[in-house]
Specification:
Layout: H1 2-10, E1 27-29, H2 35-43, E2 49-51, H3 67-74, E3 81-84, E4 93-96, H4 100-110, H5 139-150, H6 156-167, H7 172-175, H8 178-183, H9 211-218, H10 233-251, H11 256-280, H12 291-317
Helix pairs in contact: 5-6, 10-11, 10-12, 11-12
């Protein structure tokens, strides 16, 4: 607050006392698709606000996305949107397939020059091979890591999986901004690979919209922009967490600590699924597809049990 007040004072403006923030504001960001879902979050959970990010990628008045990338998003289905490992920092990252960035990286891999020249270097963090941090999406790191993997005494499938983990990293600090630079006429598309990070919810927004259309949709003032069959945001959350649980199980090396972690994750996830099922039994707000929560919960609970039985069985069968 002192810094904000100083800004107003220095600019010759007045800071009004009722603008003072006296408590943290709690908001929900990600995956909201209907006004009914937003109303539930505000009324039932007491949130101060909701955030709608990905849908605005389809609003040219609000976001500077290049034409090719926006066309990709318009045509993206659920199968094209996924939780990826492209982040050089190892943070799970929502992604869409077939971006300009993905094609650029694949072309470099085909030429034997994987990774990026690292023109900006904002995500340098790895010191596995160097004294000074380098980026795991860089050409320097990937060549060093791939050479290390080639010399490992492990079977071919494991080497293939390890190489894929290395090559999946994307030059985000450069490529994420390229779409805006193309849109503004600052860069040519052929010189600017585009990366973008839409949530899976964008699969239900299939054209460009005016700002008025999107705002009316958010506040329930007009016809909904998404079909009635769109799964509830809580249903998609359940599915995404079970996907993530499956990825952790696949990465498991058979250590007891990993099994303990997975067991705790499973219990927490089961509690969350049961809570969502309670919500599904309540009256819906306008535009809420609550039936999709019950359907998804039953399916994903079975999938969760199947993943758990597989990993727990694999660990139990290993020699002690």
């Amino acid at each position: 607050a002192p810094l904000v007040k100083r800004h107003y004072s220095n600019s010759g403006s007045e800071f009004r006392d009722h603008w003072q923030v006296t408590r943290p504001r709690l908001t929900v960001q990600g995956g909201i698709g209907t006004s009914g879902e937003a109303k539930r979050l505000l009324k039932e959970f007491g949130m101060d606000a909701t955030g709608w990010g990905s849908p605005f990628l389809m609003v040219p008045e609000a976001t500077t996305v290049d034409r090719a990338t926006r066309s990709l998003l318009e045509n993206a289905g659920s199968q094209d949107l996924y939780l990826s490992s492209v982040s050089p920092l190892g943070v799970p990252f929502n992604n869409v397939r077939n971006t300009g960035s993905q094609k650029w990286h694949e072309n470099r891999i085909a030429k034997g020059k994987p990774g990026s020249p690292c023109p900006k270097g904002f995500l340098k963090s790895n010191t596995e091979f160097t004294d000074q941090p380098i980026c795991t999406a860089s050409n320097q790191y990937q060549l060093l890591k791939l050479d290390q993997i080639n010399r490992m005494d492990v079977d071919k499938p494991e080497k293939t999986a390890m190489r894929q983990q290395v090559l999946e990293k994307t030059c985000l600090c450069d490529h994420l901004g390229n779409g805006a630079l193309i849109n503004l006429g600052i860069l040519e598309e052929r010189r600017a690979p585009q990366a973008i990070c839409p949530g899976p919810n964008i699969a239900w927004f299939d054209r460009t919209y005016s700002l008025q259309e999107m705002v009316d949709h958010i506040y329930g003032r007009g016809d909904t922009l998404v079909p009635a069959g769109r799964p509830h945001m809580f249903a998609k959350e359940i599915e995404m967490y079970v996907d993530y649980f499956g990825e952790l199980a696949e990465e498991s090396k058979g250590e007891e600590a990993e099994l303990t972690k997975l067991s705790e994750f499973k219990r927490n996830l089961e509690d969350g699924i049961a809570y969502c099922q309670q919500i599904a039994a309540t009256d819906p707000y306008p535009g809420e597809n609550l039936s999709s929560i019950a359907e998804t919960a039953a399916k994903e609970r079975d999938r969760l049990d199947s993943i758990w039985n597989r990993v727990a069985g694999d660990l139990a069968s290993e020699p002690s």
